[in-house]
Inverse folding.
């Protein structure tokens, strides 16, 4: 497996840290972009395992850090949902220029919601796969709800999410209010694979149901039995990557 480090400029001029995963044995016929979960990064074990599983099946896979996360430039307060979507589009534009237009988007958790939204704006995308995605982008607001009133008073505050400090402001909050994900899913009209664990304690399985109901065929659902939200066990993420590769082969 060959991992190539990339630096991709986004709409604001920040450099996004990224890696292109390509198999040494299987040259890429297609390209895919992986969008990580909220407050995560492209170095998460599940991201690496899924990317490498897809690379073994003939994909060049770009995994990257959203603005203000991992090793990408910018502040976390600029990494709201709308900005995440813009980052995906920036990565797509870069890959189109330097390699070949990506045709598959894969997103984990809030990244899943972001790839659905980005796919609605990218004509080259032929298929979309989500993993543990919420059906409403405001789902994550409970993680920083304790800071919302303080933002209204002070403009910018530092909060704790998962044991780590992050700064948020009004722009960050409003970035989660302007997307109607069920409506976007309904209008997507591209093959959609929805993968979700029935025991997911972070994003409940009912979210997968709502996405599936709103999506038009061809749509598929796969239950990730006994997996946690972050796909912490390597066997779960490798299984997920293998399934995505098999599923998407129908659409090429």
């Amino acid at each position: 497996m060959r991992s190539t480090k990339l630096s991709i400029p986004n709409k604001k001029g920040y450099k996004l840290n990224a890696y292109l995963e390509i198999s040494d044995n299987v040259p890429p016929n297609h390209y895919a972009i992986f969008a990580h979960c909220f407050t995560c990064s492209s170095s998460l074990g599940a991201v690496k395992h899924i990317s490498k599983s897809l690379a073994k099946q003939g994909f060049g896979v770009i995994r990257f850090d959203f603005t203000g996360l991992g090793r990408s430039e910018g502040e976390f307060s600029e990494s709201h949902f709308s900005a995440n979507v813009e980052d995906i589009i920036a990565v797509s534009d870069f890959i189109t220029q330097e390699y070949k237009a990506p045709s598959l988007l894969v997103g984990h958790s809030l990244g899943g919601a972001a790839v659905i939204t980005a796919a609605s704006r990218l004509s080259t995308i032929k298929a979309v796969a989500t993993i543990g995605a919420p059906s409403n982008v405001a789902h994550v607001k409970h993680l920083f709800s304790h800071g919302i009133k303080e933002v209204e008073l002070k403009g910018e505050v530092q909060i704790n999410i998962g044991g780590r400090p992050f700064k948020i402001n009004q722009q960050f909050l409003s970035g989660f209010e302007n997307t109607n994900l069920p409506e976007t899913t309904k209008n997507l009209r591209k093959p959609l694979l929805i993968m979700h664990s029935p025991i997911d304690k972070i994003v409940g399985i009912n979210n997968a149901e709502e996405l599936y109901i709103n999506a038009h065929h061809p749509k598929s659902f796969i239950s990730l039995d006994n997996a946690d939200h972050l796909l912490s066990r390597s066997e779960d993420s490798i299984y997920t990557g293998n399934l995505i590769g098999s599923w998407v082969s129908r659409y090429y």
